[in-house]
Amino acid sequence: MKMEQAKMNPWRTPEWMLLSHRKPATASSFVEGKDASKATNEDVRTWWRAASNESGEWLQIDLMFHVMCTPYKLILPMTG
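RE: above sequence
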């Protein structure tokens, strides 16, 4: 099989779409500097963090339209 050698621009025709990018987000709580908007900014150096490790903490993202998406991917930060 021969593969075409060409420059790829993933932003012009991405194979996936981040539906949550810059969408409004709210959370049950957050640590200072780790508010809900950090979950939708597409910056791997930032993230939302709940104020506690207790069950019941939540994050809600408003996609601003009805959508059925399958599959989906949830990326969580690694803890050390």
